[in-house]
Design brief:
Layout (H helix, E strand, L loop, with lengths): L1 E6 L8 H15 L3 E6 L6 H9 L3 E4 L7 H15 L3 E5 L5 H7 L4 E6 L9 H13 L2 E4 L2 H9 L7 E3 L6 H6 L19 E5 L8 H14 L4 E5 L6 H11 L5 E5 L4 H6 L3 E3 L9 H8 L4 E4 L4 H4 L6 E4 L4 H13 L1 H18 L2 H16 L1
Helix pairs in contact: 1-2, 1-15, 4-5, 8-9, 8-13, 11-14
Length: 370
């Protein structure tokens, strides 16, 4: 079977999504399938490229299907015509791709939705849903929250199912001994109490509220440091300004985008997530893999990873004070933190291990093609 795994809008990094792609390629090789991974932009991280090649997979770059469709789509069409894939699975790709794949008579086409809908359903959204239903064999959602939103937008309930993207736990845990970037500040002065937040500095990630919570917490806890990990965005400068004004710039550190998140997570005491909305927040799965509980916001998607009071604590979104209060609660109650962390670890292995989830996906490919 020839599989074109087309996932656009990804960065030049080696994170959980890229680890998932590597595991997919390895499992395809083991099951006797060929896979080509297609991106919008080049990914030059050596480990990613080398591991795809070692799995017998090809990495193809065709350009942005949204910002430059007149270049990207013809390139994709040429490749599909020449290679003749049996299955094409698209993520984060211009929906105009779907009718083109139908015209090209690709036997099996999948579409995965990654994000929920936090706005009124527009005619554009309904058109995308219509194309998905008429041009694909299956529609997948990365969480129950995303599935519910797509049904609200017009997807028939029988046409969409939830399949968590998951995390390659074996690979993620195995990479935790390697620090590929500079040793972060604060590692030796925290007495083991490092709080970590992983997320882009874009408004939907709520980094403004996380930074305000960090200032509040660290003023009360002199032995704690906070790592903010993620690529730059519109909220970064205001967050840095707040830290400077607080005088805590020697205990709150902006680490930027890192490819060694497993190593960072291994040193964390707990994680704080301030997102305003999510599809499926893999950073909460990442921390759970190490038994590190998450303080997060009560939003769809995140509440499927973090079970309030069982594997972590959830608070109302857009509230820095609520994030700070829950964080202080876990800092002051190590017994509760340990209990939540162990339950989080068990749930990550039971529900979100992509070893099992990718097997389930490949079973669907094979069944639908046959």
């Amino acid at each position: 079977m020839r599989i074109l795994y087309w996932i656009g809008r990804v960065g030049d990094k080696f994170g959980s999504l890229e680890r998932y792609n590597v595991l997919l390629a390895e499992k395809c090789r083991w099951r006797g399938h060929q896979v080509v991974v297609m991106h919008d932009i080049p990914n030059t991280v050596p480990e990613y490229v080398q591991r795809l090649q070692a799995a017998g997979s090809r990495l193809l770059v065709i350009g942005h299907t949204y910002s430059d469709p007149w270049h990207a789509l013809p390139s994709a069409i040429r490749f599909v015509r020449e290679w003749k894939p049996d299955v094409v699975h698209v993520h984060f790709v211009n929906p105009l791709v779907l009718p083109l794949l139908k015209v090209l008579q690709v036997p099996v086409v999948y579409q995965t939705f990654h994000t929920g809908i936090d706005h009124a359903i527009s005619n554009r959204t309904r058109l995308i849903v219509w194309m998905c239903q008429h041009c694909t064999r299956r529609i997948l959602a990365v969480s129950d929250r995303v599935r519910r939103d797509e049904i609200r937008a017009g997807v028939h309930p029988d046409r969409i199912r939830t399949l968590y993207l998951g995390l390659s736990l074996r690979d993620f845990l195995g990479s935790s001994n390697s620090c590929s970037g500079p040793i972060p500040n604060g590692l030796n002065g925290s007495k083991g109490k490092i709080i970590i937040t992983v997320g882009r500095f874009s408004p939907e990630k709520g980094m403004r509220y996380v930074t305000e919570a960090a200032v509040n917490v660290l003023k009360q806890c002199p032995d704690v440091v906070w790592w903010l990990v993620g690529r730059d965005g519109p909220d970064e400068e205001s967050a840095k300004s707040l830290v400077r004004q607080s005088g805590l710039n020697e205990r709150i550190f902006f680490l930027g985008q890192r490819n060694d998140v497993p190593w960072l997570m291994r040193h964390a005491y707990l994680q704080v997530v301030g997102s305003l909305f999510e599809g499926l927040p893999l950073m909460a799965v990442e921390s759970s893999a190490f038994g590190v509980p998450t303080v997060g916001t009560q939003i769809g998607g995140l509440d499927e990873v973090v079970l309030d009071g069982i594997t972590g604590l959830l608070v109302p979104r857009a509230s820095s004070s609520a994030l700070a209060d829950a964080t202080l609660r876990l800092l002051n109650d190590p017994e509760l933190r340990n209990r939540l962390g162990e339950a989080a670890r068990a749930r990550a292995h039971e529900v979100f291990d992509s070893e099992r989830l990718i097997d389930e996906l490949l079973d669907m490919y094979e069944s639908d093609l046959n």
